[in-house]
Structures are given as structure tokens and as C-alpha cells.
Specification:
Layout: H1 2-30, H2 35-54, H3 57-82, H4 88-128, E1 138-139, H5 140-157, E2 162-168, H6 171-177, H7 180-195, E3 203-208, E4 213-218, H8 222-248, E5 254-260, H9 269-280
Parallel strand pairs: 1-3
Antiparallel strand pairs: 2-4, 2-5, 3-4
Helix pairs in contact: 1-2, 1-4, 2-3, 2-4, 3-4, 7-8
């Protein structure tokens, strides 16, 4: 409901601004005797509105007070010294200029509210999202939730659980050799390669999107994880010779390491990831 009110306020303010601008321009064009003066006053009104839009309503109010005082003094001088009669011309700008400022402030306030709501939704989406948008894989948040459950099951039923971590070797160098679109496509291809190397009851995660890092929770021990690593290396070699070299004109090399879960040394899912990443240094 709050978002609808902000949107409605923005729409109303926009229509009001359009209306008062139309009235001001019609009044300016309809009075040929004071055309130059009206053009100047119209520009002043728009200038105050623009300043209000990019600053605050307080600034707009101060500028309007200065304008009313200045134009009122000018009108008084014209009446007393020159002998002009106070007409609609004088009252119009004394009223319309604050109105234009007020409507501009309404539009500004509504837009800022909408932007704040958008930023909040983006933050909530990032914090609550459990899927990586580029690969449709579960992300690190989902990994922590799943790993907590799997670690408890492993302890309770004595089921071996192993985390296999995969990264692309020389990723920084490769990212400078290919385009951004190719990088995204490469991440997707490697994700599919990893996905086809594990069983249906195992889980694949995208742990890091900046420096692509995949994690696989495998219900197996170290020996079973080594079989998966061997399978991945064979598929990578085949992929390089069949698709990768022709598609990206670079050679793909993966760095892999596996850590079996032991309750006494791994207390949290983050410990699981840290230990697996440490072992990546030994995969040369």
C-alpha cells in the first residue's frame, strides 16, 4: 500500500506540474504588453523549481521568500513611483511561483521515496536470494543452510560427507583475454560441466561469482571425491579439445580440492569452505 501511495503521489505531482507549467505559459503568451517581463518571471520560477528539485524544500522556500520580497518591492515601486495600477499580472507570479516550487517538491519527495523503496527491495532480494542469477545454481547462502543440515545428518547417521571446491585456473588472465559476455557464458559452461559430473543426490553451488568458485556437497568419502575429480579432469580435457578451444580460443584448466567432513575439525559450513580452499593451493 505504501508503494502504491508513493507512485500515486508521483503521478499526481507530475500532472500538477504539467498543468501549472501550461497555465504559466498560456498566461505569458496571452499578455503581449508584458511579454518580456513574463518571460523573465517564468524563467525565474522554473529556476527556483530546478534548484528545489536538486536541493531541498527549505532552499526552495528561502528562494521564494526572496523572490516575493523582490517582486513585491518592484511592484510597490511601480505603483508609487511610476503610477502603475496593481493588476492580475502582479498577483499571478506572486502566487504561481510558490505553487510551481511546491509541486516540484512533491514530485521530488515522491521520486525519492520510490527510489528508497527500490533500493530496499534490491537489498532484500540480494540478502534473501538463494540462487545465482547467471547460472541458476544455489548460492553461498543456500550452501550454508544445506550444509548445516547435511553435516547434522552425517554426524547422526555416520554418512561420509565431502565438500569439493572447483575454480578456474588463471581466471584473472582469462578474463582479460575474453569479453564480458564470453566470461558469463564460460561460467555457465563450467557449471554445466560440473553438474554432469555428480550424482542426482549430490548438490552443486556457486560459492563466489566474482572469482568463480563452485562447491559440491558429495555424500561420499575422500576416495569417492577423488573419482569425481578424475571424472572432471577427463571431461575438461574432452571439452577443451571439442568445444572450448574453438568457442573461446583459450584452454580451460580447473583447480580442485576436496575435504571430508569431520565434526571435531569442522564446526560450521564456513569452516568447511575455508579448509577446502586451503587445499586448492596444493592442486598445481
Amino acid at each position: 500500500m505504501k508503494r502504491n501511495q508513493s507512485s500515486l503521489m508521483s503521478d499526481i505531482a507530475f500532472l500538477l506540474l504539467f498543468l501549472v507549467c501550461l497555465i504559466s505559459m498560456m498566461f505569458t503568451a496571452g499578455n503581449s504588453d508584458q511579454y518580456i517581463l513574463n518571460i523573465i518571471l517564468l524563467n525565474v520560477a522554473f529556476l527556483i523549481a530546478i534548484v528545489t528539485y536538486f536541493t531541498t524544500v527549505t532552499t526552495g522556500l528561502i528562494l521564494n521568500i526572496v523572490f516575493i520580497f523582490g517582486y513585491g518591492t518592484f511592484t510597490l515601486y511601480q505603483t508609487v513611483a511610476v503610477g502603475d495600477v496593481v493588476s492580475v499580472q502582479h498577483y499571478f507570479w506572486l502566487i504561481m511561483t510558490p505553487i510551481i516550487t511546491a509541486v516540484t517538491w512533491m514530485l521530488t519527495a515522491a521520486n525519492k521515496q520510490l527510489q528508497a523503496e527500490k533500493d530496499l527491495l534490491v537489498k532484500q532480494n540480494v540478502s534473501l536470494a538463494t540462487m545465482d542469477e547467471r547460472t541458476n545454481l544455489k548460492n553461498s547462502r543456500s550452501f550454508q543452510k544445506d550444509a548445516t543440515v547435511f553435516m547434522a545428518l552425517s554426524t547422526r547417521y555416520q554418512i561420509p560427507l565431502t565438500l569439493l571446491v572447483v575454480t578456474v585456473k588463471y581466471w584473472d588472465e582469462l578474463s582479460r583475454m575474453i569479453s564480458q559476455d564470453q566470461m558469463t557464458e564460460m561460467i555457465y559452461d563450467v557449471s554445466k560441466l560440473n553438474e554432469t559430473s555428480i550424482r542426482l543426490n549430490d548438490s552443486l553451488y556457486m560459492l563466489n561469482t566474482e572469482t568463480p568458485t563452485w562447491g559440491m556437497l558429495l555424500f561420499t568419502d575422500d576416495d569417492g571425491a577423488n573419482i569425481v575429480i578424475k571424472r572432471l579432469r577427463e571431461k575438461t580435457e574432452s571439452f577443451n579439445s571439442v568445444e572450448f578451444a574453438g568457442k573461446y580460443r583459450v584452454e580451460l584448466k580447473l583447480t580442485m580440492s576436496a575435504v571430508q567432513y569431520h565434526p571435531e575439525s569442522i564446526a560450521t559450513p564456513l569452516d568447511f569452505i575455508v579448509q577446502a580452499r586451503k587445499r586448492l593451493e596444493y592442486d598445481v
